[in-house]
C-alpha cells in the first residue's frame, strides 16, 4: 500500500504541474495582444480547462483514487495529439503528451487495484453477503 501512495504522490505532482501549465498557457491570450472579447474568451476557457485538470488529477491520485477521474484525464493526451496535429507545435506538446501518457499508464494499477476483490454490499433484506457467510461458518465450526 505504501508504494501505491508514493506512486500516486509523484503522479499527483506531475499532473497538477501539467494543470498549472495549462492554466498559464490558457490564460496567456488575455495578457498578450489587444484584449479583445475573443482573446478573453480563449483565456477563460483555457484557464478553466487547467483548473478542471488540477481538480481531476487530485481526484485520480487521492488515497482512494477515482476511476472516472483517471479516465477523464485521458483528455490530456488526446488534447495534446490534436494540438500537435493542428498547430505542429512539437516543443510544448510532444513532451507533455509523453509525460501525461506515461503518468496515466503508471498510476493505472493503483487506480484499479482491488477492483476484483471488492465485497458486495450487504443487503438488509437478504442478510449477509455470500462472500462473508463461508468465513463465519468456518469460524463457528472450530
From TrEMBL:
The keyword Transmembrane helix applies. The chain crosses the membrane at residues 39-60, 72-90, 96-115. It comes from the Bacteria. Residues 118-142 are annotated as: Disordered. Keywords: Membrane, Transmembrane, Transmembrane helix. This is Uncharacterized protein.
Amino acid at each position: 500500500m505504501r508504494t501505491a501512495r508514493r506512486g500516486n504522490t509523484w503522479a499527483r505532482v506531475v499532473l497538477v504541474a501539467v494543470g498549472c501549465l495549462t492554466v498559464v498557457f490558457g490564460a496567456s491570450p488575455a495578457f498578450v495582444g489587444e484584449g479583445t472579447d475573443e482573446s478573453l474568451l480563449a483565456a477563460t476557457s483555457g484557464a478553466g480547462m487547467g483548473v478542471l485538470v488540477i481538480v481531476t488529477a487530485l481526484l485520480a491520485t487521492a488515497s482512494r483514487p477515482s476511476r472516472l477521474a483517471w479516465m477523464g484525464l485521458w483528455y490530456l493526451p488526446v488534447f495534446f495529439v490534436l494540438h500537435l496535429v493542428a498547430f505542429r507545435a512539437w516543443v510544448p506538446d510532444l513532451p507533455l503528451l509523453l509525460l501525461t501518457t506515461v503518468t496515466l499508464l503508471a498510476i493505472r494499477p493503483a487506480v484499479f487495484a482491488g477492483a476484483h476483490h471488492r465485497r458486495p454490499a450487504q443487503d438488509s433484506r437478504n442478510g449477509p453477503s455470500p462472500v462473508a457467510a463461508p468465513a463465519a461458518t468456518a469460524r463457528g465450526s472450530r
